[in-house]
């Protein structure tokens, strides 16, 4: 890229205007100078193009850095939030109230739950969620016959997460099945029957 671009051709020169107004033809020497001016003009056009590219890239870089700074400022501001001053024990207690109804179905493309959402906020919240198996022991599973295979795989993956992270906690499970009499997920839940505290069908 061209740094500090300076054009070579003075497009407002008086001599050029005089040539354009002259009633006589141009001499060989003058024609040679015009050819040189055209070459300089081509060089300057290339220089302008390179300078425009350089400045546009600079603008993109500056905008990117500005966005990074805004994100950094927002992160710093979040550290001043009162919730960051809560002890882990109080934070976990709050989580138990927020996560009493995990629903492993919201729409076919995005299964989710309160506990999973909380555990994805930051490393501290994730550690708190992982350390409290009670948060993962209460959930609702919804299965429709119209679910595609990809969604069912996602749902099974999330169900495995809840079963694993609930450790040895007694489970409260609400199962909704529409258009199905049985399903592999139901058999998976049945294998954890020794841990059932409450099952709702």
Automatic annotation (TrEMBL):
Origin species: Lentinula boryana
Superkingdom, natural source: Eukaryota
Entries under InterPro entries matching the protein: F-box_dom
Record domain F-box: where: 83-139
Protein name, as recorded: F-box domain-containing protein
């Amino acid at each position: 890229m061209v740094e500090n671009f300076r054009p070579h051709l003075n497009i407002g020169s008086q001599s050029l205007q005089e040539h354009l107004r002259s009633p006589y033809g141009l001499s060989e020497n003058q024609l040679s100078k015009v050819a040189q001016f055209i070459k300089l003009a081509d060089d300057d056009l290339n220089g302008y193009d390179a300078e425009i590219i350089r400045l546009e890239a600079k603008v993109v870089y500056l905008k990117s850095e500005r966005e990074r700074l805004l994100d950094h400022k927002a992160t710093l501001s979040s550290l001043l939030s009162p919730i960051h001053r809560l002890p882990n024990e109080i934070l976990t207690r709050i989580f138990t109230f927020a996560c009493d109804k995990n629903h492993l179905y919201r729409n076919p493309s995005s299964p989710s739950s309160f506990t999973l959402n909380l555990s994805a906020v930051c490393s501290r919240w994730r550690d708190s969620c992982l350390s409290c198996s009670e948060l993962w022991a209460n959930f609702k599973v919804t299965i429709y016959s119209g679910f595609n295979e990809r969604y069912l795989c996602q749902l099974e993956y999330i169900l495995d997460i809840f079963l694993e992270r609930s450790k040895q906690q007694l489970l409260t499970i609400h199962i909704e099945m529409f258009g199905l009499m049985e399903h592999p997920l139901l058999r998976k839940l049945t294998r954890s029957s020794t841990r059932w505290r409450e099952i709702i069908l």
